[in-house]
Amino acid sequence: MPLVSHKGTLAIAAVIDIAIYSATGPVSAKALATRHKLPPRHLEVVLQALVRDGILKGIRGPRGGYEIAREQAKITAKDILNSVGRIEEADELPEAELIGAVVQPSLAIAERCFSAALREINVADLVRQALHARGHGLHSFDTHHEADITEAREHVR
Hints:
Layout: H1 6-21, H2 29-35, H3 40-52, E1 56-59, E2 65-68, H4 77-85, H5 97-119, H6 123-134, H7 146-156
Antiparallel strand pairs: 1-2
Helix pairs in contact: 1-3, 1-4, 1-6, 2-3, 6-7
């Protein structure tokens, strides 16, 4: 069972992608969707939540798109997942005694540990890993010019 939802995983990937490619200008939702092989409508809600929470900056206009809103090293995976978590629907749990007395407290401990680990993962580190992986065969990043990648590397140093 994955601890991070598909939407959460997509949000982290989108922020990394935007961090890499926005060095030369805003990244369009269409370009992002193409790189991740998704219809743009799957990304819109996620991108809007990330803008609302100050992780991304939305730029309007024909050359608009998205940029990172603050220093990459200060954006954590936890920040991104919290942003996306607010848009995902949470089902109400039944008010059973076992759930309230045992299950929820036990899961709360696991969630605190997971949250602590997520706070240690920041976008700058993920960008470095993505750029390193690109150098070792991550082909989805090969759709842009080498100058864009070089500029992104300089930005995270």
